[in-house]
Amino acid sequence: MATAAKKESKPNAAFMKPVTPSKVLAEVVGAEPMPRTEVTKKVWDYIKKHDLQDAANRRMINADAKLEAVFEGKKQVSMFEMTKLISAHLKA
């Protein structure tokens, strides 16, 4: 039992591996390869900077022109759908 408590949790290597954003996603987060976690963080920074969270339902994201291209032309997506749509724009 004592050895289990001493084990350090390592970050999941798959999340830390740099991925390359597509040209469309690079408009929002930049073109440099970065870990998925950093891509998500930068997308959220962009959403907050441009006040794109829906006022009535904060789980919904209202797309501007750049995000609409990432979201396959949808004007509004949920946080969960957004993650799936962003993944389609990442190359390992």
Specify the structural class: mainly alpha
Major sheet: 2 strands, antiparallel
Measure the end-to-end span. Answer: 38 Å
What's the arrangement of strands in the largest beta sheet?
A: 1-4
- What form results from the Cα inertia axes? globular
Instruction: Provide mean pLDDT, rounded.
Output: 89
Q: Helical proportion? A: 40-55%
The total of helices stands at: 6
Query: Approximately what portion of the residues adopt beta-strand conformation?
Result: 5-15%
How many E-type strands?
Answer: 4
What is the C-level CATH assignment of the domain at 36-92? Mainly Alpha
Poorly predicted runs of 5 or more residues:
none
- The name CATH uses for the topology of the domain at 36-92 is MDM2
CATH superfamily of the domain at 36-92: SWIB/MDM2 domain
H/E topology pattern: HHEHHEHEHE
Radius of gyration: 16 Å
CATH architecture annotation of the domain at 36-92: Orthogonal Bundle
Account of the protein in words:
The structure is a single chain. With 92 residues, this protein is mainly α. It has a domain of 57 residues: Orthogonal Bundle (MDM2). 49% of the residues lie in helices and 11% in strands. The protein has six helices and four strands. A two-stranded antiparallel ribbon has the order 1-4. A two-stranded antiparallel sheet has the order 2-3. The chain starts with a helix and ends with a strand.
